[in-house]
Design goal:
The structure holds 2 protein chains of 2 kinds. By secondary structure, chain A is mainly beta. Chain A is built from no helices and 10 strands. Chain B is an all-beta fold. The termini of chain B are far apart. At the A-B interface, strand 3, strand 4 and strand 9 of A face strand 4, strand 5, strand 9 and strand 10 of B.
């Protein structure tokens, strides 16, 4: 059911930018892309979302390609507390949010 | 402000026993409500979602059912638990009416069926 594909795992050095890719090639014109992260045994935490323009907030930046078939979540200065599973989600117009298996990001000291 | 409450935090149940997990949302009206399940080491699977009282949509055939007896209450149930029902269950909600609202999660219930 998930409309997104992500690499299963990534490493990033502490203090460097973490760039997490996501493919959503079947996305429809009015479907938003959301990013969440989950630390073990907790509920997922909202990070950012967007439709077609790049977005930035206090946590991250979201870069969506012009054809909207892929996006990248950027954590500008990764810290050890950013170690988590990151989910890229497409919200379909019928209000469902379908999660894939996500990317396990490990920030290395 | 809006809050979501989910309980219990952990639950150990024998195979064949019934299940009832409850979720309530405060500070909003007519929210969209969701139940997700996460098996160990896996992603989140959407089980049920509801856009109003008594309106339940099921995503996958399974041993579980959901009910929404009140506007801000969502209940996940089973008459007889299976070993495969073990997992981390999460309730979530969004504001209704717009397609760019955020999904907010409860703290989850870790269910172990033995």
């Amino acid at each position: 059911d998930a409309k997104t594909t992500q690499p299963p795992s990534m490493d990033c050095a502490e203090g460097r930018a973490a760039n997490l890719p996501c493919n959503h090639s079947t996305i429809s014109g009015n479907e938003y892309v959301y990013w969440y992260r989950q630390i073990h045994s907790q509920g997922p935490q909202y990070i950012i979302h967007g439709l077609k323009n790049n977005e930035t907030n206090e946590m991250a930046s979201l870069i969506i390609t012009e054809d909207r078939k892929s996006s990248t979540l950027i954590l500008p200065h990764a810290t050890l507390r950013d170690t988590a599973v990151y989910y890229c989600i497409v919200r379909v117009v019928s209000n469902q949010f379908y999660f894939g298996t996500g990317t396990s990001l490990t920030v290395i000291p | 402000s809006q809050t979501i409450h989910q309980w219990p935090a952990t639950l150990v149940q024998p195979v064949g026993s019934p299940l009832s997990l409850e979720c309530t949302v405060e500070g909003t009206s007519n929210p969209n409500l969701y139940w997700y399940r996460q098996a160990a080491g896996r992603g989140l699977q959407l089980l049920f979602y509801s856009v109003g009282i008594g309106q339940i949509s099921s995503e996958v055939p399974q041993n579980l059912s959901a009910s929404r007896p009140q506007d801000r209450q969502f209940i996940l149930s089973s008459k007889k638990l299976l070993l495969s029902d073990s997992g981390f269950y999460l309730c979530a909600w969004t504001e209704p009416g717009r397609i760019n609202e955020k999904l907010f999660f409860g703290s989850g219930t870790q269910l172990s069926v033995l």
